[in-house]
Amino acid sequence: MENRVKSSLVFLGLVLLLLNYTSVAADKPPNILIITVDNLGYGDLKSYEPNSEIITPHLDKIGKTGARLTCFYTASPTCTVSRGALLTGRIPQRNKLEEQLPGIKGNYGVGLRQSEILIPRILKTSAHHYATGCFGKWNIGFAPGSRPTERGFDEYLGHASGNIDYYTHIYQGKHDLFENTDELFRGGAYSTDLFADAAIRFIEKNSKKDKPWFVYLPFNAPHFPSPGNQKPGEEPEWQAPDWAFRTYGLSPEEKDKKKRYRAVVTALDSAIGRVMHTLESLHISENTFVFLCSDNGAFMLPERGLEVSSNLPLRSGGVTCWEGGLRVAAFAVWPGKIKAGSVIDTPLWSPDILQVCARLSEAKLPENVIFDGKDPIPVLTGKTTESPHESFYFKYRDHAAFRFQNWKIVREKPSSAWSLFDLVNDISETKDQAELYPEKVGAMEKMFSLKSEELSKSR
Q1: Burial of 358 (C-beta count, 10 Å sphere; 0-12/13-18/19+)
Q2: pLDDT tens, position by position, 21-63
Q3: pLDDT at residue 10 is higher than 50
Q4: Is the dihedral of CA 238, 240, 246, 252 positive or negative?
Q5: Among 151, 155, 137, 148, which residue's Cα sits nearest to residue 213?
Q6: What was the pLDDT predicted at 408?
Q7: How far apart are CA 322 and CA 319, in angstroms?
Q8: Domains recognised in the chain with CATH numbers
Q9: Which ranges of 110-241 does DSSP label H, i.e. alpha helix?
Q10: Of residues 30, 94, 22, 95, the one with CA closest to residue 380
Q11: Helices (DSSP H) in 28-90: which residue ranges?
Q12: What distance in Å separates the CA atoms of residue 226 and residue 345, rounded to the nearest whole number?
């Protein structure tokens, strides 16, 4: 009898221990991995454009293990401005970072107002004590007080500017690679791999501590090569490791710009694949929310040798408010929560990412800040196909656009008449319907003007 009672007590103890473990595991907040790539074309990936010749097995796999978003917008069609919007959850006209940071003076200046609150600062208010790391392209200001580890990130490895030489890490004659706030010299190391490796080390370290983490991994690839980053007399060219060229049966001395670009994207794909494999090897994939997108559409500038990528079937590209500048390739992965292989056509945009981070970390958003993002989790997890947004406002320099439901007005300068497009039936913006529906144009123009007026008064 006594032995039977002891056995029952032991069994009960094991059950309670298991229930407690299950409860703790269920309550454990997810890790968050946000990956951005630089100027990748909407039509560069086979998952968006089946005729693409670029080899990206790891990005293809991401599309199959998670959701592919076909109507995801960046809040600005250029690098600096889009990053400020993503990190603050506020569109450029509200956070006041509306221009690309130019040159050494711009990139090493204040940039984004230091009063703006970034995602890692919000995560620091969570009771779950997230570790936060940033690895890659910063491009929103690097003056004292503006650097990543001064804006909420625990660790940083990357560059201050908008683009660097992939191997020498030079930007306009200045060495531009940092670890936290200290200059880091790793000449000869391919920047894409440097950033992936740093992210992997951070993930491994904090996962072993059983600590939830947030990683912002903004690759500089496949940004175009800049003449200012080369030695005098050197011609800028797309840079990739030798193995990436061999993948296409090419020599590293290949001169064709389009072929070299493909090697850059394939090298980027490999780096992303290694990061995703790390999640699998650590058995944390199911408790990690991953979002990947391009910062803006590919640049279509043939006079600079940049028309090597594709935004098909979208019109135009970076620095414009046509769909090719604003609508970008994007994926969301969260096993068990986001349906594998799903395709989401619902309009969402980059300021929504901050809302995801706040919700998943159970952080409280400041009440005195106006955010332009809304929670996209119900859409991503298939609970609804209705967008949390009724409209989207875009403005960059002279370009402007406004999307209301399925309709979009767009113009290339303030003195131009608005064009009107039905984006559901004309994603390529080829059929201007402004003359057919002048009342719709007028109503949307009024909405655009009211939004502009509101934003001009925001602080």
Answers
A1: buried
A2: 333 334 689 999 999 999 999 999 999 999 999 999 999 999 9
A3: no
A4: positive
A5: 155
A6: 98
A7: 9
A8: 29-390 (3.40.720.10), 398-457 (3.30.1120.10)
A9: 119-123, 191-208
A10: 30
A11: 57-65, 79-88
A12: 35
Give bridge partners of residue 276 from the DSSP assignment. Answer: none
Q: Are 353 and 118 in contact (CB under 8 A)?
A: no
> Cβ(17)–Cβ(9) under 8 Å?
no
d(CA 364, CA 376): 17
Long-range contacts of 243-251 (CB under 8 A, 24+ apart): 244/270, 247/55, 248/55
Q: List Cβ<8 Å contacts ≥24 apart for 156-159.
A: 156/180, 156/181, 157/184, 157/194, 157/195, 157/198, 158/134, 158/195, 158/218, 159/191, 159/220
* Residue 413 CB neighbours (<10 A): 9
The answer for 155, left when phi > 0, alpha when psi is -120 to 50, beta otherwise, is beta
Identify the sign of the CA torsion 37, 38, 41, 46: negative
Contact 38, 328 (CB under 8 A): no
Residue 392 and residue 374 in contact, taking contact as beta carbons nearer than 8 Å: no
Q: Are strands 31-37 and 213-218 parallel, antiparallel or unpaired?
A: parallel
297 within 8 A of 318, measured Cβ to Cβ: yes
DSSP string, 211-265: --EEEEEE--TTPPP-GGGSPTTPPP-----HHHHHTTT--TT---HHHHHHHHH
C-alpha 285/C-alpha 5 separation (Å) is 41
Q: Give per-residue pLDDT as tens, 292-321.
A: 999 999 998 775 667 899 999 999 999 999
